[in-house]
């Protein structure tokens, strides 16, 4: 099985040298929290240009900002970069999530060049209609026990703080980054069941709407697979997995994994037919602006 191609961008990439694609989806940035990887996202936004940029919810974390104010310059830089893309002609569409508490009042308005909508339908270059939604409406905890969601959010922040200290120690030993919360999510039986149930519920709703697929976020778990004939895509997050969903000009979809500030790997494309998605990624050539000086 071919492995991911690890593509290293130069330290600074100008907009003119960026990789161009048709569409990019990002979500769960959580600006306003210490866990947000704003520097990595800014690198990604500098390296990739697109016709349409979808912000699929939980971009600015109102829950955290109400508890305590946290807004470093890097978070402001991300907002400014997105607004700059809008000014330069990128269509930017913001679909608010449950943490974007300020956003509902701006739905159906254009805010600084950004269209704010409850949901959207995107048609790919090869004709597939994809429903764009954050996905929190399919989270029973959010809908039925909001207080429990806030408790879980605080527990998640605590896990991230533990993970940060643990990885500082690993770095001193020359070991790579390791995600405790991602490990728990994939290993704890109830967490795995929750993720699976969420994916099935979102895909089922997309099929009810007569659409070929769905793009969502919310659960911080990047994934691309067929579920009962519906293409399910989750673009992940910019707290731990550092992933985005990318559409190329021919309609191919890929998950871009910016797992460190030094590397971008693209998973294999999803077939536009009804075939099952391959179990692993395929190699892709390195675009010029993403090659390290030694490549």
Polypeptide structure, described:
There is one protein chain. The protein has a nine-stranded mixed β-sheet, covered by helices on one side. A five-stranded mixed β-sheet has the order 7-8-9-11-10, with helices on one face. By secondary structure, the chain is an alpha/beta fold. The protein is globular, with a radius of gyration of 18 Å. The protein is built from seven helices and 14 strands. A hairpin with a 2-residue loop joins strand 13 (253-260) and strand 14 (263-266). The two termini are 23 Å apart.
| N-to-C series of helices and strands | EEHEHHEEEEEHHHHEEEEEE
CATH homology group: Metallo-dependent phosphatases
Question: Spans with pLDDT under 50 lasting ≥5 residues?
Answer: 1-15, 140-154, 261-295
Radius of gyration (CA) equals 18 Å
**Fold-level CATH name:** Purple Acid Phosphatase, chain A, domain 2
Q: Which strand order spans the largest sheet, edge to edge or round the barrel?
A: 1-14-13-12-2-3-4-6-5
Known CATH architecture:
4-Layer Sandwich
The total tally of domains equals 1
Helix content: 25-40%
Structural class: alpha/beta
**What's the overall geometry?**
globular
Any idea of the CATH class?
A: Alpha Beta
